[in-house]
Amino acid sequence: MKPIETIMRTAPVIPVLVIEDAAHAVPVARALVAGGLRVLEVTLRTPAALDAIRAMRGVEGAIVGAGTVTNPCDLKAAIDAGAEFIVSPGLTARLGEAAVASGIPFLPGTANAADIMTGLDLGLTHFKFFPAATSGGLPALKALCGPFHQVKFCPTGGINLASAAEWLAFDPVLCVGGSWLVPKGAPDEAAIEAAAHAAFGLRT
Predict the structure, then answer these.
(1) Given 3-state DSSP classes, what are the helix, strand and coil percentages for the chain, each rounded to the nearest 5?
(2) Lower Cβ count inside 10 Å, N or C end of the chain?
(3) Cα separation of 32 and 26, whole Å?
(4) Whole-angstrom Cα distance, residue 176 to residue 188?
């Protein structure tokens, strides 16, 4: 099993996190891990993101990666901050080649057949399907999996607790990305842990 597949199979939902304040990083990570969601994607959408990755790496049981990685400079900064895996919203040859060369587990975003073929040319077989809900939803992913039977996916974008189970029931889907678990503002650890427990229960 490839390292990225091991990460994807760790829990049914990968929380997609936008951390505005690095002081929130540890409480958020602690609550999510306590709820069973160990794989955490910290998006590089805020100035606090890299510090949040560094802080979350200190939470026992957490597997911390960087999301919204769009170029080799982002890739290097995320790796230097301690990211254990990389997620991108799309895929370019430049980013893909740099990620593959680095050896880090890499989950690039794809939305169509051309994206997937670009990834396959780089030796990649595990992808994010993004933005899932507005790229044709589950019917589109099922259609793509016809010619690309060897690939596995983590659909992300527009998925919530109510819709996640339908995605997860499709065999090529190993997990989904979810931004619903952690609302903006100061973290309520009890509420986040409860949301994580509910998401973890999607696998059973």
Answers:
(1) 40, 15, 40
(2) C
(3) 10
(4) 23
What is the arithmetic mean of pLDDT over 172-195? 97
Please state the length of the chain: 204
What pTM was estimated for this model as a whole?
Answer: 0.97
pLDDT at position 203 over 90: no
pLDDT in tens, 81-108: 999 999 999 999 999 999 999 999 999 9
Give the whole-angstrom CA distance, residue 4 versus residue 135. 23
The alpha carbon dihedral of 93, 97, 99, 104 has a sign of: positive
Does residue 193 have a pLDDT over 90?
Answer: yes
- List the one residue out of 90, 49, 99, 42 whose CA is nearest residue 67: 42
Chain centre distance of CA 109: 10
CA distance 32 to 36: 6
Cis amide linkage into residue 131, ω under 30° from 0: yes
Question: Which pLDDT does position 22 carry in this prediction?
Answer: 97
- Vertex 176 angle, CA 157 and 172, to 5°: 115
Q: What are the residue numbers of the active site?
A: 41, 128
Contacts of 185 (CB under 8 A, 6+ apart): none
By C-alpha distance, which of 186, 151, 168 is closest to 12? Answer: 168
- Asked if 153 contacts 130 with a C-beta cutoff of 8 angstroms, the reply is no
